[in-house]
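Q: What does the assembled structure look like for these inputs?
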Amino acid sequence: MIIDHPLLGPRDASEFVYLGDASLIDRPNPDTEDASHAFYEYAYLRDNPAGLHRELWFHEAGDRSWLVVTRNTETHEITKVEFAKDVARLAGRSL
Amino acid sequence: MSSAKNRLTGGQIDHSQSLNFSFDGRRYTGHPGDTLASALLANGVRLMGRSFKYHRPRGPFSAGSQEPNALVELRNGALREPNTRATTAELFDGLSATSQNRIGSLKFDVLAVNDLMSNFLTAGFYYKTFMWPAAFWEKLYEPVIRRAAGLGAMSEKDDPDVYDKGFLHCDLLVIGSGPSGLMAALTAARSGADVILADEDFKLGGQLNSETLTIADQSGADWAAATVAELATYPNVRLMPRTTVIGAFDHGIYGAVERLGDHLSVSEADKPRQILWRIYAGKTVLAAGAIERPIAFENNDRPGIMLASALRSYANRFAVAVDQRAVVFANNDDAHRTAQDLHAKGVQVIVVDVRPDAPMSMDFEVLRGAQVINTTGRLGLRFVDVQLQDGSTRIIECGALGVSGGWNPNVHLTCHQRGRPVWNAQQQAFVPGDMPAGMLVAGAAAGAMSTYDALATGVTAAAQALDLSANLPDVPAAENAPVEITPFWYVQGASRAWVDQQNDVTVKDVKLSHQEGFRSVEHLKRYTTLGMATDQGKTSNLLGMAIMAELEDKPIEAVGTTIFRPPYTPVAIGAFAGRHREQEFHPKRLTPSHKWAEEQGAVFVEVGNWMRAQWYPRSGETTWRDSVDREVLATRNSVGVCDVTTLGKIDVQGSDAAAFLNKVYCNGFAKLAVGKVRYGVMLREDGIAKDDGTAARLAEDHFVVTTTTANAVSVYRHMEFVHQCLCPDMDVQMISTTDAWAQFSVAGPNSRHVLQKIVDQDISNDAFPFMACANITICGGLRARLFRISFSGELAYEIAVPTAYGDALIRRLMEVGADYDISPYGTEALSVMRIEKGHAAGNELNGTTTAQNLGLGRMVSTKKDSIGAVLSRREGLNAPGDLRQVGIKPVNLDDKVPAGAHLMNAQGPVDATHDQGYVTSACFSPTLGHHIGLGFVKDGANRLGETLRLVSPLTDVDITVELCSPHFVDPEGERLRV
Amino acid sequence: MSDLKPLPSLNMASATIGAIQIQERTDLELASVAARRGHKADCVTQLEILLGRAPDIGQVVTHDDQFGFWVGRHQWMLCCSSQSFSDLASDVKAEFRDTASVTEQSGGWVALDVSGSTVCDMMERLCNVPLRKLGSHQVQRTMIHQMNCFALTLAPEALLILGPRSSAASLYHALTVAARSIA
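A:
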């Protein structure tokens, strides 16, 4: 596969390391009452969609950035590639 | 000149040069441009192999890579390659080939008796017959069957050839160099695009080399040669003959095997025999042509019976008349061109055409509405029995029979992304359906069967791929005959009519499969083996499916095709391995002291890619234990030195560096003072321990984190994940510095004395206490880092210098340590000492254990959030009686404590239900004088002093052990602090 | 001054194979620079002072006996030719002060000059960098036989390969094997 890196352009997927569902960015607040349950879901429960999937890839043989790649699991078509850092900020993550 | 009896004049071979070769020990000659098959046929050899199951005599069925029958073992000794297609093996001087799958000689194969037993050996025979008793399968049935039924034999020696891998980039990849491929390449070349033109054949030109038709005013072959010559003048064009595109992968990545040495008697030294290319193609034009398909009839597999197009190829391209008398059996007009070409070469030819309205010829006899109903000839075709339109039978004597049931567009690569071809009723063939993104098809592969259409679609496909509209090449004049075909698959009433010659699948087998309920094409394939093995059914699949469609009373398109998968043709395993074999299987990482350690005669061990000194034998030492015990005692009694560069080192800087480490380590780092080191444990988010190490605070905004050797890469990745994905606004920057610093552990009661000789600053206990760290200088000014940390349990330091100075530093340490008998120690002594001290390592941090299991539960801070903290507190990981790390010593001090052994209660059954825990690490402790172990035991912390049974049924161990503190040496940690 | 002597990772190895020359460079000092939060512009300004121009994405900028290249977002590597093996990172840190995290990288890399008319043929047997299209003064991080390297085009038909120092011998071996393959 080819991942179209936001800065470096098309790069072979072999340069990347796959982690999994981009929902890993949405780490629960540990200070809420149901944190234990929220973390259980965060750590273990994933959707396994046939179709569009947002997933995390690390550009290990590149600029060392984590990317959120939107990929169709049925066709492998990649429709969007973003810096995970930007996605995380948009999701309200900060410090 | 040639003396071969079936050699014609002309063709695409060099008659002026002769090449000597041998087949089954007999010597023959051929010419440059020949394949092994064409040269053998020229010499009158039609019999080239025995069939897979029935050991029927077989000769070449095609003149290309689709060949099911003429598989031979090429070359000798270690270079021997089985299952090589004689039809594609390029002849070279000295080539030696051997027939395969026979016992005895090719002409008198003992196992030809299988053919007489064919009533029993039908599809599914093995499944049904050799089922009981099950144990017999592996020991008896399978070896015998494998000996009898099969293909060639491996040399079982190391492949002496070398293989490369490589990477190519292009705007347009053109696959196939026939009329459409050449026109596509030309169109792209003239536009300035980067073009790769790949063709599996050694001669570019594709089908044009096998035809007599003309393009513009030239013969097709001459036009191809001229076009190839023009393409060669473009710097933006890479011509790749002998290159098979084996797969179409995601996003325009193609795999291709280029054969550089297969046509040479010996590959040049250091040069690869083959290169496996990974081609990054912007766009692709597939111009892979079409493959003729057969018609099945009784005894349609004798040597001399082949595809009509093969007869045409052998005559036109290779200047070979398979026999002076030939019959062509067909259902379409194209086969008449074969007859015309053979006639022109002086072959007596008769066409048997199933169509009552087949075109007639002035030059040769055409038997309309007739069918071939049988053939005879023990080792090769002698007679063809033809049923004429009026029902009478005519027996024709001939040595060659060309069969044509039509042409199948070569859709293989269009289907590698799960695309399915679609049925075209007019052409009676599957044509490309859904295509991989970026791929276009041209020529016969797209169903454009005439030469003119092939040329024209080549231009349009390239223009479309590259979005070109101007300066397109003109399409030259060429034949433009429509496809005239009447579907006809097999002759009714035939029982031993071969569908798949490679796997000995007959019409009867397909019927049996249907009868037994294996009706979907995928079931048909598995039940009968139709379409398996080296040719993957290139000539047979459609025929099998057509018969199944008829039995099912469904149209062929409703039956469909099996899935086409890479590789297109077989690939040597060596090509996939490339240079990554033996010593070069993976790169080696050498420590800064490697050269010095080699000089000391160190024994090395692979740790990941690292080569680490395992121990340093001295003269007189007879076993590894002698060396390791000495190294441990030398260190504990005086001082030892060990290269610990392999531990991961990550430089962490930024105003939020401390806050960040607080996040990734389960224990606190925010308040760590500058100039101090702290041991830390990282958890995974699920609460399981991920890694341990130290973090040294060199400045308010600067830490050096160490990781275990094995996890250096994954911990760095994890830390980047935490930063970029979870706390993106933290001001923290990380970079790996594992390779940048040479680091040595200097351990033992005399370590300070030794180090003080080279360190420019005061490192007394007051000035540099336990867990101190600092930027220092050594030997009069070289920058270095010093950490007072200990893995061994002794007074110890780790000292780091820029890597280039690592060699000088180890030599200096040995020099200045000589007064204290300083001893280098390797990974074994390192491991023994950490077990004696009860420090966890990879065996304990094994991906299933928590901080609690490790006895480090109190480290997990509840005052802050860190990765894994929440889930580490969940009930399931904190049950009473959970595993705890303990020390294990044998009650009988002579007993060994084997790692991996399990603990059972002293009284009670030995089984999984009553398991009390297991040993993770074990060694002989020279300090204590007996074996010791570390392990996890249920409620272990509260069971110290208890006696348990240690068992390992696999290795017959059953001893009594006592649980104890894991800190066998200096449990109070006094030595560290002196 | 310390009397310890540095040891080049390949002992100044060099080879001429066909049209290819491979030569270990032992005069390079390296320091990585990563902008601190909110200081990207300051870093760019500082890079302009040092190199004349800040390396943009995928670029190498040479300036006298120094060069710098882009490593990642707001990250660069500064390289300086020096025979003295001084402390480049300290010098760089003094310039950037609190605007950047600076890390010494001199020991971390083996530097190999690879040049010759067939350098593209050779490199296409080793990595997927599209060298023929890359142009001069470009850098790409890439894998060469599983080793994580930087490939820098410093002049026509001339590359500088930076690879992990611990794998220097394996990297050098891979390069020479590829050079013999195409010789």
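Chain C has five helices and eleven strands.
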